[in-house]
Write a structure and sequence with these properties.
This protein has six helices and no strands. The chain has about 160 residues and is mainly alpha-helical.
């Protein structure tokens, strides 16, 4: 159990540092690569939970498809890879205050909803339950997300096309 906690801590720290790097970078390609690290850390967290199927779906769908779609969109729209003007403004501190306010409100809502209740885990979720939920219960939203990603890729090609 201790090794799992150490692995969780290392993965969480890597994900947090990469998330900060994704937000702070001025290069959009580097931001997409930081996103890959965050999503890979999420997949590793699923492996720690014993949900290998969900971890591989995370790798294949999010890292393999969504990030590649982001990179295609970046490349096809011919956006400059480096910002010519500074992207920073004076709203950093009001944004931080709003984020802290929302985090506090979420914390209060969670404490109010759950309070002192202890969560009893019955055991790991079986792969067949997850597969059934994805491919039977939620198949329409799953397909809609795929069509939406395809439309975004087509839109990027249309925007990048020379007339």
């Amino acid at each position: 159990m201790v090794a799992e906690n150490v692995a969780f801590g290392i993965l969480a720290a890597a994900m947090a540092v990469s998330a900060l790097g994704m937000v702070r970078t001025k290069n959009v390609v580097h931001g997409a690569l930081f996103l890959v690290v965050v999503l890979a850390g999420g997949a590793a967290q699923f492996i720690l939970l014993g949900a290998e199927f969900v971890a591989w779906v995370q790798v294949l769908v999010y890292i393999g498809a969504v990030v590649v779609l982001f990179l295609f969109g970046i490349m096809l729209t011919r956006d400059p890879m480096r910002a010519g003007e500074p992207l920073d403004n004076d709203l950093r501190w009001p944004g931080a205050a709003a984020a802290l306010l929302l985090a506090g409100m979420l914390g209060l809502a969670l404490v109010d909803a759950f309070g002192e209740k202890k969560i009893e885990l019955a055991g790991p979720t079986l792969n067949r339950a997850i597969t059934s939920a994805i491919f039977r219960t939620y198949v329409i939203p799953f397909e809609i997300a795929g069509v939406l990603l395809l439309a975004a890729l087509i839109g990027a090609v249309v925007l990048a096309r020379k007339d």
